[in-house]
């Protein structure tokens, strides 16, 4: 009688090592998405002796505990905020004889409004009871105002939208030499309309 043929056994001793190596591989190669905060350039404190900010260069916006929007203490609709912000930022109120004259501004050049975009500050005050949705909507309108002005100047100077250049710069497949060129252009546009939004939370 023939002996029963032995079934080959699989050596499972190194399976744990293989699983561990695979785990390390995926941890190293996987990119983890992180939430981005709201990008803001905070202006100098008004109380600072070095920072003498003219009142006309500050656009005061308040969102109260009833989610009502007030601009310069006047009740306005959120849908009108973008235009109000654009008119303020693009005013160019400094006269031609002064150092702060804005030759690319297309506003009314109202002497009671902002001198130029580099000095214009948006002061946003909100209460603790302010609804999160209202707060985000106000933020979006303000950012949209900056983006519209930046897109306008980018089209004038480079025949391309600012937002498109930012997308190309952030795209991983964009060649390095193209990124360097985009970086210079983006920085230039940001200097023309620097985003200065000072936020104050009132308890």
What does this structure look like?
The chain is of the alpha/beta class. The chain has one domain (55-202). Helices cover 38% and strands 12% of the residues. It is built from five helices and five strands. The protein has helices at residues 15-29, 81-89, 132-158, 162-170, 176-192, and strands at residues 58-63, 69-71, 74-76, 121-127, 197-202. A five-stranded mixed sheet has the order 3-2-1-4-5, covered by helices on one side. Strand 2 and strand 3 form a beta hairpin. Helix 3 packs across helix 5. The longest helix has 27 residues, at 132-158. The protein is flat, with a radius of gyration of 27 Å. Mean pLDDT is 85; it is low at 40-50.
The N- to C-terminal Cα distance equals 93 Å
Total of domains: 1
- The percentage helix is 25-40%
Low-confidence stretches: 40-50
How much of the sequence lies in strands comes to 5-15%
């Amino acid at each position: 009688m023939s002996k029963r043929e032995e079934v080959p056994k699989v050596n499972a001793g190194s399976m744990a090592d293989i699983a561990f190596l695979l785990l390390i591989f995926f941890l190293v190669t996987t990119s983890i998405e992180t939430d981005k905060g709201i990008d803001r350039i905070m202006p100098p404190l008004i109380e600072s002796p070095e920072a003498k900010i003219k009142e006309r260069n500050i656009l005061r916006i308040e969102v109260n505990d009833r989610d009502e929007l007030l601009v310069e203490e006047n009740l306005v609709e959120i849908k009108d905020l973008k235009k109000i912000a654009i008119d303020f930022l693009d005013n160019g109120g400094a006269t031609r004889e002064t150092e702060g004259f804005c030759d690319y501004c297309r506003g009314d050049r109202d002497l009671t409004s902002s001198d130029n975009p580099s000095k214009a500050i948006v002061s946003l005050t909100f209460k603790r009871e302010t609804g999160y949705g209202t707060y985000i909507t106000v933020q979006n309108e303000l950012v949209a105002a900056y983006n519209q002005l930046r897109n306008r100047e980018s089209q004038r100077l480079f025949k391309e939208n600012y937002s498109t250049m930012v997308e190309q710069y952030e795209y991983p497949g964009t060649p390095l030499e193209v990124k360097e060129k985009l970086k210079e252009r983006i920085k230039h546009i940001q200097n023309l309309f620097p985003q200065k939004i000072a936020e104050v939370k009132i308890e």
